[in-house]
Structures are given as C-alpha cells and as structure tokens.
Please model this.
Amino acid sequence: MSQIAVIGSGAWGLALASHLARMNHDVLVWCHAEEVADQLRESGVFAGFPDVVLPSSIRYTADLQEAAADQDLLIFAVASPFTRSTAKRIAPYIREGQRITAVTKGVEDGTYATQVEIIRQEIPCAAVSALSGPTHAEEVVRSLPTTIVSASEDPEFAAFVQDLFMNEFLRVYTSTDVTGVELGGSLKNVIALAAGIADGIGYGDNLKAALITRGIHEICGLAVKLGARYETLWGLSGMGDLIVTCASMHSRNRRAGILIGQGKTMEEAMAEVGQVVEGVYSAKAAVGLAERCGVELPISREVNRVLFEHKDPQQAVRDLLLRERKAE
Model:
C-alpha cells in the first residue's frame, strides 16, 4: 500500500482517487475549499458522478501542507489554468526528490509550457512525470476497461506509476517520451473542439473522419518539431486520445464545440459546459507554438478564429476545404 495525495477534486482527480482507493492505497484528496472537502466527506458523492458513491476510505483536506506531507506520490489534477498557481502554493512543502505526476492536459497560454514543465519550473526539487491517454473520468470511476500511458525520462519512475495504477480495469503502458505524451494529450483538445463545431453545425461523419485524420497530422508536425517521437503520437496518448475526445459526449471540448457550432459564443459554451474546457486555452498556445516553430496548423488556426475572432464556423469549414491544392 502506498500513500498518495491527489491535488484537485474535479472529475479526473476524484476518478483517479477512487481507482487508487479501490486498490487499497491510502488516498488523500486536496480540495480548493473547505466546504468542498466537507461535502465530499459527508456525502461521498461528486456532482459530476451523481450515481457513484466514492470509496469511504478516501480522505479529504483543504490544507496543502497536509496534502504534501509524507506522500509516496503527488498527483497534480487541478485544471490546467491553475497548475502554476497551485504549484507555487505547494512548493514550500515539497521535499527533495518528491515524486509528482501531472494528469491534466494543457499547454499554458503565453509561456507555451506543458503541465510537467510548469511543475518543474515552480517545484525544481521534485521529480515530475505525466500520465495521459484516452481516459474519460466518467468511465474510470465506474471501473470500465481503460488504457493509459505513464511517461517519465526515468524508466524506473514510469514503472513505479504503472505498478501503482495497473489492475484488471486499467492497463498502464510506460514511455520515456514525456513531450510526446503531453503534447498529444493537449493538442487533441483543439481538434476535438473542431469536431464538436462540425457536429453542432450538422455536418456528417465524413468531415469528422477528415478532422481526426488531418488533426493527427497537425499534432505530429508540431510535436515532433518540439522533440516528441512520431510513434508516440500514433499511440494511446496521441491518436487514441484524439479519437475518444472527438467522438464521445463525455468530452468537454466536443460538447463546447457543438454549442459553438449551434451559434453560441465561446463564453456561452464554456458556461453551459460548466467545467474548464482545456482546448480553449491550448488553442492559442498551439498557434503560438506553430508560429515559433514554422509549422502550419490550418485546423487549429481556424478554431482560434472561431473562438477569439468570432469567425462564422461554417465559413471556417469552407476556408479549410478551399485551401490550396496539395498531395496527401
């Protein structure tokens, strides 16, 4: 049995906490507010999973110092816009060599830093890995079969996380390509927004297939330029995550895209989804990174124009289809 603290009490953090508690690990969840911790202690029910009772062995706290103390692993599961601020707050309590795994997907607007990079910048004494893949919280919390990738430049650290999480419901693979695993998980959210927009307009499966296929082409082009391995992007944390996020109604990014395709603004869509839509933040970062690297991202660029320049979504699709002729 290991001692594990999950930093963040959203859907993904609680799904992982539930999975680990069912494996008899000692699990503590940090909540951003005491009232959230009190509600979870008293009811054992999270609003995102109203028909699921979380394991009673999970403990909850709103004290970051308590969450950081004597843990074998810290799991960073706060929404990506809050990763840096939370890392700054917890940094004074982190011991040298503390193992931290980032499970949130996103690239920081402005700095273009991934979640692992942000945590390393704010907590330089820690060892940081990533855990990513085609994993909807709504299914993991119900023990539906799932696969995921544990990524660290240190193979022993990647295997440590693999051993903690793996059971008959959750198969864990390892990788040393942290850049590829993180960028695959982050950039696919932008393509999922595009797929959702197409669904909201009422376009069919042909366009969805095109967006997924050309989307992975975009992701590979940028990620490989930034040091990722090509084969990583065609694995679970790239193509696998892209497929599930573009196809599932569990996907916040797809749901937000559908609403935008139906005529809502980005702000209205995010408010209706009611959770952080990571692709909105990664979209700006993707285009900024592409300009820096000299890589063309036509789908991501059109998504940005729809989100931030109020471009008509149907015109965005037409402009994609009427781009200059080229060979595949």
